[in-house]
Amino acid sequence: MKVFPTLLVALACLSSAWSDSGGIVIISPGDAEGSGVMNNGGFEDESSTPWKSVGKNTNLAITADKENAYQGEKYAKVQKLFVPPYWTNVAQPTEHVIQANDIYEISFYAKALRDNSNNDKVSWNIFYTEDDKLNGKPTLIASGDSTPLTDAYELNSFKMNSPVPEEAVGKILFISIISDHMRDHGSAAVDNVSLTAGKSTP
Ligand SMILES: [Ca+2]
């Protein structure tokens, strides 16, 4: 039955692609101008987007506004408001099943959308949940904040220092980009999200 582990790997990698560095591409904005980009990292393809709304507002935070998009016509508006539409965050259950020794790299572009949002930070989480559902009890694998926002888009990149914990293996990988560490009435634009999985070297 030597074929069995190979089959498992093949299933886990279904819908994924290999990055230039040999890792698995989980989310990519691609050219961000059209459909077919991996898990809609550029927020352009709303008809098949895997992005969900999390938090108080149930409206998806994807905004069509070419002037404020980093690339293409759309971006995620991540906000912390105490009046409707309240705070808006985005998250997605990815198509990646967590593998032993996975090390994740995340990057995205972010900027402030209002003058009073300068120096705010956008936060990101990489996690899994008890039942593999978005609203299930989460366990964090990695998290962080962007650099302080300015009026111009800046690239934020992070790479995990150590591989995923053993108890995470076999679970669905989730990502969220949220406004928890923004001040009241903060509003940010996030575009061109990228998430890849590499392997730790022993
Ligand atoms: Ca875009």
UniProtKB/TrEMBL annotation:
A single GO molecular function term of this UniProt record: hydrolase activity, acting on glycosyl bonds
Domain CBM-cenC: 37-150
Keyword vocabulary terms for this entry: Hydrolase, Signal
Domain of life according to the entry: Bacteria
Gene3D superfamilies: Galactose-binding domain-like
Record keyword Zinc present: no
Record's signal peptide: 1-19
Name of the protein in its database record: Carbohydrate binding domain-containing protein
Protein's organism: Terrimicrobium sacchariphilum
